[in-house]
From TrEMBL:
Belongs to the ArgR family. The lineage of its organism: Bacteria, Bacillati, Actinomycetota, Actinomycetes, Kitasatosporales. SUPFAM superfamilies: C-terminal domain of arginine repressor. This is Arginine repressor. The gene is argR. The keyword DNA-binding applies. It comes from Streptomyces luteireticuli.
Amino acid sequence: MLRTAPGAAQFFASAIDQAGVHEIIGTIAGDDTVLLISRDPVGGQALADHLLRLAQKER
């Protein structure tokens, strides 16, 4: 699960879908939350760790 600003989840989910990240099967977006679905049934933690590293590079 990823949190966004209110109203931004659909835009963010679309960007993830368009990026074609092999490890992600797809996304489900609400108003401020995005659910990422990992291709590997046990790969969720590795995917979360990767996304956290990417987010920390921008700070």
